Amino acid sequence: METKRRKTEEFPAEGSRDPGAVDSMKLSGDSGDDKSDLSDIHSNSNAEGLDDDVQKPEEHPHEVAGVKPSTNVEEVHFKLEGHPHEVAGVKPSTNVEEVHFKLEEHPHEVSGVKPSTNAKEVFFRGVRKRPWGRHAADIKDPWRKGCVWLGTFDTAGEAAKAYQAYDAAARELRGPKAKTNFPMEINKADHDHTIKQKMCRSRVCLSEITDDKSKPNANAKEVHFRDIQKNTDVEVYVTAAREFLGPKAKTNFPVEINVENKADHYHTTTIIMDRIWELNKKKDIVCLILSYPPLNLVSKERHKGWIMDVLAITHKVRKLKASSKEKEVNLPELVSDITGLLYHSFHDIEAYVPHDMIEEMREETTESRMPEKEVLNLTIDFALRQILEYIEIPELRRIGISGIDDTRLVSRLKNLPTIRNMFDVIILVSASNYKTIEEIEDSIARELGLSTVSTQQVDELLKNKNFLILLNDIDYSIKLNDVRTNLWNLKNIQKIVSTSRFPGVHHMQVDLEIRLKDHLLSWELFYRNVEKVHSLSIGIQLQAIHVLKQCCGHLLATVLMARALKGVNNVRIWEYSSHALQLLPPSQTEDRILFNALAFIWGLLGSADQKCVKYCASYLEREGTDNVDLIGRWIKGGLIGSIDEGDEIIRNLVNALLLESFQNGNSVRMRDEIFKELVKLFKTEMNPMLLELGGMELREAPVEEAWKEAGSILLMNNRISKLPKNPHCPKLNILFLQVNHHLRVIPPFFFECMPILQILDLSHTRIRCLPQSLFKLVLLRKLFLKGCELFMELSPEVGGLSHLEVLDLEGTEIINLPASVGKLTNLRCLKVSFYGYNNNSRKNHKPDTVIPKNVIANLLQLKELSIDVNPDDERWNVTVKDIVKEVCSLDRLDSLKLYLPEVVLLNGLRNGSSSTELSLMHYRFIVGSHMKRIISRLPLEIVGKFEKQERCLKYVNGEGVPTEIKEVLQHATALFLDRHLTLTSLSQFGIGNMENLKFCVLGECNQIQTIVDTDNDGDVLLESLQYLNLHYMKNLRSIWKGSLGGRSLLSLKSLMLYTCPQLATVFTLNLLENLYHLEELVVEDCPEINSLVTGEDLSDLPLCMDYLPKLKKISLHYLPKLVSISSGLRIAPNLEWMSFYGCPSLRTLSPYECRLDNLKVIIGEADWWSALSWEKSEWLRIPNLDSIFVPIERDKDWMTQLAELNSQLKAWMQETKPSQPSGSGTSSKQKQVLGALSGHQMATSSSMSAGKLSLDLEL
């Protein structure tokens, strides 16, 4: 289809404005006017008469020649140009309407000027006089063909003052070269030290600047300098001009700087350092944003020269400071150069990142919401991408990464294939171990195998090589400028990359600082535009993270997807959106992610909206058009029926960012990037539609006619048992059929007419095999068969799916993996489960191996590998050694799940290639021989939480303390000791090996008597531990034994104790003082516990101290000897949930032990509650708590009731409809309490966090 839009042009050079350039548009709001790029507009107007008073000037420090003004002149302007040393004469035209005195070159001599006698009035920019005498002010924008109205005023002077907004915007865009009516007032005190010449302190009288031949006219009223208002000090303009342009400023009077004056010199150098700091901060932010798509494709070249200039002037300043030759440099000129660079225009960047976000990064005041761990991991990915973007620039010698508290980024950078191929020498130094430069340089020499005595050898070795020196966790006292100063050779790629935990520590000592916090940029953009995602269900919050990850930091696509999903409560749409972003477009496109985002949004639009979008992509002028005109064209074309409908569609498209509004919302236009990708989308003639029928309890699939136009079909969570025999689906990309438990057979020709199907999900169905037509899907990229428990054999024809990237067979019952899987060279994710094999029942059908040799080794693109096997399968014990060797050859692997029946197999992973460095990977290792028939008594919920951790180690049926386990434990974030046979204390594994441990589960370790047993006074132990779960610990007697360091267990949030029959002590007083962040406590089936807190002289402690200040939930079940919660200590001032069951000895509660201020739920048996008494207090009044008590019925399973109640409370917290409980249902009393709580929640919603409480109330 022909289009009237012009071809996309490149961004203009600095200082120009091409109509094709991307205009500034804030992405944070639904709609709004753009800040227009302003041009110099000259409009005629009639000026008001000026004051006739003529004041006598003070003495001028320079001789000024005379001027013959016109008899009709009302105001004379001086144009300040060139170097202010002489004033040359100017002979204006006889028709001139505004007389300027042009100060050129050196303003020491002024020749006469004979202005025209026809000069009439003084005119201001953009001011027009109305016939009735008032003055109007507006700004014409030639690029957008419209006016920005400023208002109507009584006088021309007042109208001109309205242009001060124009002046500010012009300076923002043009910097010091902007043409304005009035000067910018600055604090000239900062520069008084550079100005030693006496200046004029009053207005200049016309009679004072005449030569011998001139005769001042009696009608001349007053002389004004150009760009200086009446009653404005001349010196203000002079100072402002030099503020912007330094020694090249166009001023009336020259500047003299005394470099010998120490005070002047000090103040000037201070200004230089302040501005170079600000300039580099601006450069760092620009470099960070330019590393994100689409800016890295369209705007990088425009800013490259500016970045090089900033680096050059920064190096110059560093050399001056180091060489003490500052007096030999023209400091004012240096100030001028730095200031000029500060006014570099970034309007194209602000088209993607809102100005306020950039300012927050510049001021380092960003207060980001704490994102999920997966989002924090994205910051490392984006930081690595930025490093790769700039690492080949020779001038960027030192790169600093701040705000990093682990070694993952440095280790991943070191092992990237691109980095290893780029550099001849890569050295990693743990700089936290060294406090001086000499120690760091000695470490570098040792890494090179050289003597630490002579640094000359190191310099000679490295000077002509491409080297990368990584300084991890460098101390703030180290001066990076002094590290290896004799190495640099611009002909080679030579870098020093340092990391620090604190931002800005070495900002002026590096050429590029990368703050990890700033790489939350895309997450902040998504969060701003999607709005209230934190109040949605947990499932949607997880899917939101997946969507953000699939956007890959693409700023425009991130905002488009966020606005498209704003207000969507259907988790299936969210899941579908993350898959849609991964599709391969049917046509060539430079921006796949943006193309897929627009295709997804197109599928969500209504029919009328789609027609209007297609019209705009085809016929809308590039510079935009008026809303009324566009609606008229839509109506004329039959696309809509009324103006109101058109207004509604424009609002929808602007809110979706498919169109942008400008000129106070009266006009719209389309972004060039969106236009390009929409044209490509329409050229494919796909125009895909979304058929979303998930979760509707369908028993039959849609009729075949409904499949024809669909690009995505979502039929998950239904009861479909039969599919169409051969549906015609030429446009189908995505097909979701998961969780249809009645689906057993797929027709043989079902996939025959789905030529472009890319994503197929058949998970949790009851199919036994795949039809032959599936293996003809040559474009299939993702195949999910997760949880298909009856699926037992994968056809060898799967090797023909050459584009397959994801093959998920987790939870199936297949017996072996066919050798043809090795042909899937594009495979990035492989998950398999081999549980179908049984040694006794399948002796007659027994493949020799689980996975044929070299299959894994051929999958060089593999990033995620999960192999789950039946521990009774003897074949795995033979295969696993070869599998470990093949895994070590995979360079791109970053996620690994393996079952290792012997501890010694860990050596293969630890000593393999660098690609298996455990500190960089997500892994889940199950180590130790065990039998499938032994069922763990650990709750499934705890198992699920454990498996979600980043690096998990499960050690089963262990004996002793193997060295291999201790070394893997150094990197693990989660540990599960299951049925360890000999361990008496967790400390035997070495507390120092558990510094990264966040999640710890111990189950059926019958010899353990205490968790931590230490004699080292003051050592900080288990500082990172957040979750501690102990289950069925037969001989456990205490949590902690020995001295306790000040920060030990400081991060602990959850403590759960189940079935510990010998445990009598939960908290000692010392331990209690460290548990500042504890939020949840569960103690169940521990019959020896009398009180949670034990110790001597507890009664003598001050009553004013509160322990466990963040504890919100206490669950005490089956504690027959419990008589007191905390032995009278004040605990948990913010307690919200209390649950009691099987605690018959607990007959009295104290308001000091159970703070009632924030209590919202009390759960227990009805007869226990009726018999309970409260200790009387002179200071605290006991309220009536019956309204928040929820009874547990004895004749029903109490665990089921507790789980149902917890589920409903979480639904209430998330402001969604509570799910219907299974079993017997909720009692009327429970419903009554839930209703009361719901009303209470509405009244206190501002003080409660639904997301936080949903975690606190989770069982």
Give a quick precis of the structure.
The chain is an alpha/beta fold. It contains 31 helices and 37 strands. The chain has a 20-stranded parallel β-sheet, sandwiched between helices.
Give the termini distance in whole angstroms.
60 Å
Helical percentage: 25-40%
What is the number of E strands? 37
Average pLDDT, rounded to a whole number, is 75
Name the poorly predicted regions: 1-120, 185-234, 242-248, 252-257, 1213-1259
The shape is: globular
**What's the total helix number?**
31
Overview features:
1259 residues, single chain, disordered N terminus, 14% strand, 5-stranded parallel β-sheet, nucleus, alpha/beta
Please tell me about this protein's structure:
- 28% of the residues lie in helices and 14% in strands.
- It contains 31 helices and 37 strands.
- The strands form 7 sheets. The protein has a 20-stranded parallel beta sheet, with helices on both faces.
- The longest helix is centred in the N-terminal third of the chain and has 29 residues, at 262-290.
- The two termini are 60 Å apart.
